[in-house]
From TrEMBL:
Its main location: membrane. This is histidine kinase. Residues 1-33 form the HAMP domain. Its EC number is 2.7.13.3. Residues 41-258 form the Histidine kinase domain. GO terms for molecular function: phosphoprotein phosphatase activity; phosphorelay sensor kinase activity. The lineage of its organism: Bacteria, Bacillati, Bacillota, Clostridia, Peptostreptococcales. It catalyses: ATP + protein L-histidine = ADP + protein N-phospho-L-histidine. GO terms for cellular component: plasma membrane.
Amino acid sequence: SLYEKVKIEGGGELSRLCSNFNVISYKLSQIEHQRREFVHNVSHELKTPLSSIKLLIESLKYGTYEDVNIYKEFFMDIYGEVDRIKQIIDDLMIVVNIDENKSHINLELTYINYLIEKLISRMMLKAKEKNISIIYKEIDNIQIKVDNIKIDRAITNILDNAIKYSNENSNIYIYLYNEEKYAVIKVKDEGIGIPQEDIGRIFERFYRVDKARSRKTGGSGLGLFIAKELIDLHGGDIVVESKEKEGTTFYVKLPLDLN
Ligand code: ADP
């Protein structure tokens, strides 16, 4: 082939140039592949709730129900699907900002305890629907500089998963403590757990363990990707331990000396 010929005749420098060129074009094709996959996934994620809305509206259009409550239920379902779409778009906006390095970090001295209490009370209703108890314990009083909105978002995503992937009548434990140079927020659930072979991939964008199950539980597959990115921005770390059918524990570690 022409390439082989150039490589042989050109010897040292040209051959190195060629192989560099090959590496670059390989990387470009990888990026292109990821981009396509991303667009494919986004379209699919948005299509699912939109199809449901369409169906629900059609049922309303042709249905002649005596009971007003049935209409109310339809509207509530539509509302739920619209909310899902909003959630996906919000997630996408965050991802776009992360990709463009536009996510400015706005550090403020924060009582982490206060931040956690606030987000737990926001998630309480969702937990109650499954009769899940959230047990929170502040072991150390920690006041550090963080971007409030971003850390709230990261922990909310993790707690949201803990509720989503837990069975009814179970407990979720949250602890806040110091460990070496880090503030640690531990979120432990008694849920379905994550299979060993998937655990290394759950922080990838759009990765979901069980596609069929996840579809029912909702979500965009972006939650943990976003959580990890936001924690990385703080110079922190996120660690997961899990056992199938027993539960999952996430440790969010934030540097104590972030300025
Ligand atoms: P999703 O929107 O699907 O929840 P995430 O990025 O938040 O996306 O999580 C990725 C996948 O990791 C989930 O689809 C689920 O399979 C798994 N997962 C995350 N948290 C838990 C948990 N607490 N227990 C069991 N599985 C979990």
